[in-house]
Specification:
The complex is a heterodimer of chains A (423) and B (294).
Chain A: H1 7-28, E1 40-45, H2 52-62, E2 65-70, H3 73-82, E3 89-93, H4 97-100, E4 109-110, H5 122-125, E5 128-129, E6 132-133, E7 146-147, E8 162-163, E9 166-173, E10 175-177, H6 179-182, E11 201-204, H7 207-220, H8 234-249, E12 253-257, H9 260-268, E13 274-276, H10 279-286, E14 293-295, E15 301-309, H11 316-329, H12 333-339, E16 344-345, H13 348-353, H14 357-363, E17 373-374, E18 380-382, H15 393-398, E19 400-403, H16 410-422
Parallel strand pairs in A: 1-2, 1-3, 11-12, 11-13, 15-19
Antiparallel strand pairs in A: 3-15, 4-8, 5-6, 7-8, 9-15, 9-16, 10-13, 10-14, 17-18
Chain B: H1 9-12, H2 16-36, E1 40-41, E2 46-47, H3 53-58, H4 71-104, H5 108-118, H6 126-137, H7 142-149, H8 164-189, H9 192-200, H10 205-234, H11 237-242, H12 250-259, H13 263-287, H14 290-293
Antiparallel strand pairs in B: 1-2
Helix pairs in contact in B: 4-8, 4-10, 8-10, 9-10, 10-13, 12-13
The chains are: A alpha/beta (423), B mainly alpha (294).
Chain lengths: 423, 294
Amino acid sequence: MKKSLTRRNMLKTSTAAIGAVAGAGLLKGFPAIHAADAPVIRYLGTAVNMGDAVQKKLFDDTGIKVKFIVKTTDEVVKTIFTQPNSFDIVDSEYFSMPKLVPSGNLLGMDTKRIKEWDNVTSAFTKGEVAGKKIGDQGTAPKKVMYLKGSQSKEFASEPTQYVTLIPTVYNADTLGIRPDLIKRPISTWAELLNPEFKGKASILNIPSIGIMDAAMVVEAMGEYKYPDKGNMTKEEIDLTMKIFTEAKKAGQFRAFWSDFNESVNLMASGEVVIQSMWSPAITAVRTKGIPCVYQPLKEGYRAWAAGFGLPSTTKGRQADICYEFINWYLSGWVGAYLNRQGYYSAVIPTAKKYMEAYEWDYWMMGKPATADIMSPEGKKLASKGEIRDGGSYEARMGGVACWNATMDENKYMVRKWNEMIAS
Amino acid sequence: MMKFWKIKPSVGLLSIPYSFVFIFFFFIPLVLTLIISFWDYNEYSIIPDFILENYIYIFKDCFNFEKNMCVTFKTYISTFIFCFATWFFTLIIGFFVAYFLAFYVNSITWQIVLFLLCTIPFWTSNVIRMISWIPLLGRNGLVNDFLLYIGLTDTPQEWLLYSGFSIVLAFVHLYTLFMIVPIFNSMMRIDKSIIEAAYDNGANGLQILWNVIIPLCKPGIVIGSIFVITVVMGDFITIGIMGGQQVPSIGKIIYVEMSYLQLPAAAANAVILLALTLLIIWIMTKMIDIRKEL
């Protein structure tokens, strides 16, 4: 008997097919890029430096839309491990690479497809600023930049065609202070544990970054000189945590913070006068009209760097669109946008083209402002005559002492950090 | 078989969707958590194994009483103290708010309006609340300004914020509603004629409260207590924010371990937390048989 294709049968089969497709989609995560529609990129990252203006400009220039998946630094890493197909492009930090690369979830990025690759700053590619070597303790980008091949799970010691992340943004971090409440010059990391600021200090409660700030303080106090702050031994971790535990028990810290907004509130309200801080948090406090300085310190800065990576399954048109996005990102407009927030763009010459000369002089050259300096949102950041904290690009990036790091003893470090918080 | 299905089988089918949800989204994940708590792990993956290391680490040095108390005990003790304080205050406040709503407010409309007022703390997000406590309790906050103004102190009081006090305050402010609702529910079921009978037999207000109302409210009190205690035991956001991230909580330890992909260690901590919480609930249900009272 021949089955005729009745309406009922037809409905059954098509429903089953739709069900199967939807089911498969749910399991794998819907592919974001469809051949015919306007391309949409699922962008995984902290997105602290991305505003609506970037999305709009991107769409106007390239017709690409971005859907942000906003997570904290640690959660971004977790997502790459556990849901590597839930995003099209990831904005991650270099210090996560020693953890991420062995998993094979990220693609080796082809530098031949990046138009401005030769213009990427030497701080990334060689670990140099203006021809001089900068501090490379910790997970410096140059150590985890190159891969042996596009699907490789191993780092290459010499430059190759394939890289872990295409660099986008980086900065030199230091302590933030309230000059109006401290009323004296601050010049060393050791001041964080100075009893003078008892109950008015804070440090961030993100172990992998907090430990680096802690190490800068311990070294500045003259307690210990680390062979490599970014890769401590168990004994060194114990020593660092012992010093901070004692300070915590003595009531040195008003609070710890783990969220960007918390650091802004602590500083703006005057609960804290000296603390670990990130550049945009300083900007946020200042735009409220409250004095806040990103204080350069004699021991140098703790640097970090971020870039774009793709999941290892990326290919074909999806890869084309992601590379197009990255090339657009490095073509200058975003670079200028990042520079105006106090970060640095990975490709400096293109960013310069999009900045006014007076802006360039203030942000990059360390010269006094010849006009009021505005944030990308149009709020006033500095008045005419002011100089950027820490001065020029060369002075700030040249003064880098160490980088955010993943240590060999990471597991032990996280446990010890938890013990400090609990003490 | 028929005894087991006291109700018609077709009615029994109604429980299938919920059982399904319960099994797939609660029971199976829970079993997985238990299994993974015995696995090994490294930086980027978890390794199937059967090791006790995750549990041993939690109680490392805990039974060596010559040294300082271990982190695990310290954390649990501080969590128990917050639990007890929060339970105590939410119970006292919640009971009297429910009492007022049930016996002194006679119109349903007003009961609804006043109930809505109790939910105000839930109208704002965590972030907003976190920000708003600073201008109230902070060093330059309203409370300190007032204390300085009336001359009660001459230096700002630091214990108002980022302390045990502020943690309990935030918990009570949030979770009193969890006490009010079940206690109010119990009170509304009390037959008014029982109270009248007690009154007619010469009991005074306090005696009625103690001998009639409180015993009849026990199921509500126990249900409310279960809500409050389970929420506080697992909380890390409120303790984190109000304690200035300086006060430990089991939830925070689990959260940090998870964000560093130390999933087996987090699972082991979660299993212990769950066991302790269940133990507390078990003890409470031993004190009163909720099923019978309902």
